[in-house]
Design brief:
Oligomer: single chain
Radius of gyration: 21 Å
Bound molecules: flavin-adenine dinucleotide
Shape: globular
Order of helices and strands: HHHHHHEEEEEEEEHEEHHHH
Number of helices: 11
Distance between the termini: 47 Å
Strand content: 15-25%
Number of strands: 10
Helix content: 40-55%
Length: about 400
């Protein structure tokens, strides 16, 4: 791959990353070996559920899922490392969006338990997350509560020995594949809503799943909770701590959406370079057309700027200096610039760019959702503006 397109960590600005550069080089070495092995023995993506399970097993076999769980429970680092998660997502997303999703859902779905679950729940669940034996999901969004998360209406009502959950969650990644869901619900009466979190095994009576089809391979669907009983031991955090936990999750994972977008853009730019060099029109390679060179230069510059923002935000979080506006800028810049890089790739490929089965066509479908989930671009702008305008 063109050196300019390798991850920021390897060739440029090692100082941007938290911690020891040698450690990141070692992680990149194992990622490169993993990708080589995956290319030699690919996982078929025509069945989304089988692909999710297959990818989870392969990621576990390579030890990569250890990065989604704290060391005390079979993971790689004491807390989660944002830098490692970003690096891994960037590498995985170059190959496949479904592979990236299989990786990140283990962290997104289990991190609230790592942060605030009871000791017994952590002891029984988290090592199984790291080994791929338990597949996880994160259930926050509802039909009437997307960007406006405080509008969730799923209720947790006290019952002997626990609570019962009633409500509908939608756009839940891994719905139907997951072994368990971290579910956020409204708890208690009163004028001020109180949100709480619960770990809900997928086989809980009253839990049902209806799948949704989105434009790129992604196991996703609606989760209906009809009087689902959750014992006290599966409560995650104190009553009322749910929103704080959801935000704690975002601290780590929002910036990593930007890293996945970097991976998709890496691939788009590499494909564009190769195509421009090989495609001859008007008697010479397209790469010799200055108009296309200028477009490529713009894309590469935006891409490196986005990498700086992503790894700066990840390093800040790993060094205890996390700020929501840094993560928001990183996510917005990386997903928006990746969309432009991919659109440029499609354009440079001409008719081939929109041909089903070609890489630019796949990337074009895969990037789109990243500008929407974990806070759409407009929501990131609200976060950034709030930080600027606060007294
Ligand atoms: C592929 C995919 C995977 C997902 N996985 C999960 C998951 O695993 N778990 C989970 O809980 N959720 C998940 N989601 C849901 C995702 O987080 C929501 O779709 C997202 O938060 C946006 O909510 P919404 O779709 O209801 O859009 P809406 O909130 O209805 O927003 C629609 C549009 O209006 C804009 N908008 C909203 N409010 C404002 C405002 N105040 N000012 C300006 N513009 C505004 C938004 O930016 C957006 O462009 C996933 C979504 C997708 C597409």
């Amino acid at each position: 791959m063109n050196m300019l397109l390798t991850p920021y960590v390897t060739e440029r600005g090692l100082g941007t990353l938290a911690g020891d550069p040698a450690r990141w080089r070692a992680l990149e070495g194992s990622l490169a070996a993993f990708i080589d092995e995956l290319k030699a023995r690919p996982v078929a993506e025509d069945d989304e559920d089988a692909a999710a399970r297959g990818y989870t097993a392969r990621l576990a076999g390579a030890g990569l899922l250890m990065w989604t769980v704290p060391a005390a429970h079979g993971g790689a680092t004491e807390g989660l490392s944002s830098t490692a998660i970003c690096l891994i997502r960037q590498w995985l997303a170059r190959e496949s969006g479904a592979l990236d999703t299989a990786f990140v859902m283990q962290g997104l779905g289990s991190y609230p338990v790592a942060l605030a679950g009871g000791e017994e729940l952590k002891r029984t669940l988290l090592p199984r997350v790291a080994s791929g034996a338990a597949i996880c999901a994160f259930a926050l969004t509802e039909p009437e509560a997307g960007s406006d998360v405080k509008n969730i209406s799923t209720t947790a009502t006290a019952a002997p020995g626990g609570v019962t959950l009633e409500g509908v969650k939608c756009f839940i990644s891994n719905a139907g594949v997951a072994d368990g869901y971290t579910v956020f619900a409204r708890e208690g009466e009163g004028p001020k809503p109180r949100f709480s979190a619960f770990w809900v095994p997928a086989d809980s009576p009253g839990l049902s799943v209806q799948r949704t089809k989105v434009i790129a391979p992604h196991p996703i669907g609606r989760v209906k909770l009809s009087g689902v009983f959750v014992p006290d031991e599966h409560r995650v955090g104190e009553p009322g701590a749910g929103l704080k936990l959801a935000l704690g999750n975002l601290d780590v994972f929002r910036v990593s959406v930007g890293a996945a977008a970097l991976g998709l853009a890496d691939r788009a730019i590499a494909e564009t370079v190769a195509r421009l060099k090989s495609r001859v029109q008007f008697g010479k390679p397209l790469a010799e057309q200055q108009g296309l060179q200028f477009a490529l230069a713009d894309v590469a510059t935006e891409h490196l700027a986005a990498q700086l923002l992503v790894y700066r935000a990840a390093a800040a979080r790993d060094e205890g200096r996390a700020s929501s506006d840094m993560a928001a800028m990183a996510k917005m810049a990386a997903t928006e610039s990746a969309q432009r890089a991919i659109d440029r790739a499609v354009q440079c490929f001409g008719g081939l760019g929109v041909t089903v089965g070609e890489v630019p066509e796949r990337l074009y479908r895969e990037i789109r959702a990243l500008r929407i989930y974990e806070g759409a671009t407009e929501v990131q702008k609200l976060v950034i503006a709030r930080a600027l305008l606060q007294d």
